[in-house]
Amino acid sequence: MTDSKCEVFTVVSAETVQCQKEQAAPMGFFERYVQPCLAELIGSTLFIFVGCTSVIGNVGITGSVQPALAHGLALAIVIGVFGEISGGHFNPAVSVCVFLVGGMELILLIPYVLVQMLGGMIGAGLAKAISPPIEFSNASGAAFTAVSSNADVGVATVAEIVMTLFLTMVVSMGAVNERTRCLFVPFLIGLTVTANILAGGMVSGACMNPARAFGPAVVANHWAFHWVYWIGPMAGALLSATIIRLLIGDKKIRVVFKR
Does pTM surpass 0.85? Predict the structure, then answer.
C-alpha cells in the first residue's frame, strides 16, 4: 500500500492501521483514536461555520450560488487538510456509509457522530456570534426551512435520499474502493456538494448532513421537520452502502459475485 491522498476516509480502518504499522512506527492510542476525533471536531466546526455564515449572508439574495460555493469549497479544504488524520468525514451519514463499506473501525463510529454534532453546534454558534441579529433571525440561524408543510415532506425526503446517495457514492468509490480511488477526491466531494445544493437547494435545502442540520437547529431553536434531515441522509447512506456492497464495489468490498 502506497502513501497518498487516496487514503482519505480510510486512514482509520483496521487494515490501513496494520499497513502503517508495517511501514513505520506503530501509532499510539492518541494518534489512533483521539487525534481523529479532534480532527473531526475541528473540521466540522469550520465547515459548518462557513456554511451557516454563507446562508445567513445570503438573505434577500436570489439563488443558491453563494451557499453552494461556500459549502463545497469549505468541505474540500477541510477534507484536504484533515483527511489523512481522520478520513475527513464531517458528516454522520458519510461516517455510517464508510463504516458499512469497510472504511473505518466500529469503535470510532459513535465518537465521530458525537463530535460532528458538537462541531455543528460550535460552528453554528460562531456564525451567530458574528452575524447581525436581524439577518440571523431572517435566515432562521441557517437552519433548514425548505420544508414548511406536510405536503413538502415526501419530496424533500426523497431529494435528501438521492443527494446523499450521490455524495456518499462519491466518497466511497473515490476514497474507499481500491479500484476507483482518486487523488482528487476532496475536490470531487466538494464539487458534489456544490452541485447538489445548486440542484436541490430550493427543494429541501440540500442538507445531506445531519450535523449541519443539528447545529443550527440547536442554536436557533428551530426544529420544524428537523427529522427529515436525519431520515433522508441516513437512508441515502444506507442505500449507497448497499449498492456498493452488492454491485459496484471491488472484490474486497463486494459481498457477492466475487468470481
Answer: yes
